[in-house]
Write a structure and sequence with these properties.
The chain is built from five helices and 26 strands. With 441 residues, it is mainly β. It has a single domain, classed as TolB, C-terminal domain (Neuraminidase, 6 Propeller). It has a nine-stranded mixed beta sheet with strand order 7-9-10-11-6-5-4-3-8, with no helix packed on it. Strands 1-23-22-21-20 form a five-stranded antiparallel beta sheet, with no helix packed on it. A hairpin with a 5-residue loop joins strand 16 (269-274) and strand 17. The structure holds 2-acetamido-2-deoxy-beta-D-glucopyranose (3 copies). One 2-acetamido-2-deoxy-beta-D-glucopyranose binds next to strand 19.
């Protein structure tokens, strides 16, 4: 009996080691580029002009609270005829992130609230959004955010992932273009499978995809101090994406939630975005440095089918799919530098923002014979780090920095109307940056 249970154990370990090796092999570009190599990044590079003259940070001149911004999202304004007239930007920031970060730690002080900000391109003003009727004593640590477009001036539902002290929940607010710096609190959404929500992507005013970055979280007693780290470092595919819909809710009642896991087994699933047509989903897998593209099937209930994988040379954070032909991806080119920066052992940590361009008519721009011809303008080209993406995609750097110009990029937004690029920074002292294209270039 002893011999056979020994053999069973050995078989078990052999299988575990084989699976882990396979997983680490899949993660090879992510690990090699973002952990084991220090990238040779320039001080700054902006694809549509000179970063010194075209890029500036968004600041809270009064109180310095606009910092450590994890996410940014466009709030689209459509007129009565349905024509898009303006994209405002909403930012989610948390000045206390160095004391409270449920993804990377530490969990020291959840008291100071994070904040939401509104940037209006027409006035170039950034103003804090006040939360109306927000429950007293309820923590506010905003992470992923998304807001439904406004049509003909109507109000929009805004969803905010909130890393509250006991568990992560999703807050629903109402924002009205007539009073754009007020967000009226509606309800707090909670579910047993909201284990570690990170990012949301809306599929209607009352339904969305949500990523869960880890299965084991830092809030777990005892285990929380090391198991989530093991999950991250071994790139264990324990994150997942769910679809959530809320039923029609009468005034001041709590919605009931329909929840289904649509894409399980993703390593550190982080950013999520739905294509403007609503037909495809993009999901960032941070530790393996990949973006997965899925087709969405809407009925009977939403499900997804994997179609493509795009490899990038950094720890992919958030995604924004702001035009049918472009997904903007931001991330962390060197994880050890990020950790040192958080621990104040470095002055900055690098940023990289790229566009995945989708050649809609289908003919591939880069054939395998031309592997070194993509991203030819960036000082540190993607083509020195990763293989070309599959057709119909190409990849191009929009912004990169060793961190001295802008640190810790988490989200990039590219406005197809104006060409303006917005970047938020997880631990950036000035929480976000805007770069405006040089005219006549
Ligand atoms: C605003 O109008 C759009 C388009 O008609 C609609 O889908 C949306 O539900 C409306 N928003 C709210 C909060 O009622
Ligand atoms: C995804 O959708 C596109 C467009 O509808 C279709 O051409 C393609 O075959 C689909 N791929 C898969 C794997 O379902
Ligand atoms: C790549 O293309 C060039 C010219 O089109 C051709 O001469 C060359 O043989 C091709 N190389 C490979 C590896 O297919």
């Amino acid at each position: 009996m002893r011999a056979s249970s020994g053999a069973t154990m050995r078989t078990f370990f052999a299988i575990a080691v084989a699976l882990l090796s396979l997983q680490l092999w899949k993660a090879k570009y992510g690990l090699k580029n973002a952990i084991f190599t220090t990238p040779d990044l320039p001080e700054g590079y902006y694809h549509a002009g000179n970063y010194l003259t075209q890029c500036s940070t968004l600041k809270d001149e009064q109180n310095g609270l606009l910092k450590h911004c994890e996410d940014a999202t466009f709030w689209e304004m459509h007129d009565d005829a349905g024509k898009l007239t303006e994209r405002k930007v909403i930012l989610s920031c948390d000045a206390g992130r160095r004391e409270w970060n449920t993804v990377m730690g530490p969990l020291k002080n959840p008291e100071p609230h994070g904040s939401l900000w509104l940037y209006t391109p027409q006035t170039s003003k950034t103003v804090q959004i006040s939360l109306e009727e927000y429950p007293a004593g309820h923590d506010f640590h905003p992470l992923g955010i998304e807001v439904y477009p406004s049509y003909g001036g109507n109000a929009s539902y805004l969803y905010v992932v909130n890393h509250a002290r006991q568990k992560t929940v999703i807050e629903q607010f109402l924002v009205d273009p007539a009073k754009p710096t007020l967000a009226k609190y509606l309800q707090t959404l909670s579910h047993p499978l909201f284990i570690s929500p990170n990012s949301v992507a809306l599929t209607s005013p009352t339904s969305f995809f949500v990523t869960n970055d880890h299965l084991f979280t830092r809030r777990l007693p005892i285990l929380g101090s090391f198991v989530p780290l093991v999950e991250t470092l071994l790139t264990l595919p324990l994150g997942f994406v769910s679809h959530v819909s809320l039923d029609g809710r009468a005034e001041s009642e709590q919605s009931t939630i329909s929840h289904s896991v649509v894409a399980p087994f993703i390593s550190f699933s982080n950013g999520v975005a739905v294509s403007p047509q609503g037909s495809q989903l993009a999901v960032a897998s941070t530790t393996v440095g990949k973006v997965y593209i899925y087709n969405i099937t809407k009925s009977p209930s939403p499900s997804v089918t994997h179609v493509h994988t795009i490899q990038l040379p950094f720890s992919v954070d958030n995604l924004a799919w702001t035009s049918p032909s472009e997904i903007v991806v931001a991330g962390h080119p060197h994880f050890p530098s990020l950790l040192k920066f958080i621990a104040r052992k470095r002055e900055y940590a690098p940023s990289w923002v790229v566009a995945i361009q989708i050649n809609i008519d289908g003919s591939p721009k880069a054939t395998p014979n031309e592997t070194k011809t993509f991203d030819i303008h960036a000082p540190l080209s993607l083509n020195t780090k990763v293989p070309p993406p599959p057709a119909p995609y190409t990849i191009e750097t929009l912004f990169q920095s060793d961190g001295s110009v802008f640190s810790t990029s988490t989200t990039g937004l590219h406005d197809p109307l104006t060409g303006e690029l917005y970047i938020s920074g997880l631990y950036a002292e000035d929480g976000a940056m805007i770069c405006k294209p040089e005219v006549n270039q």
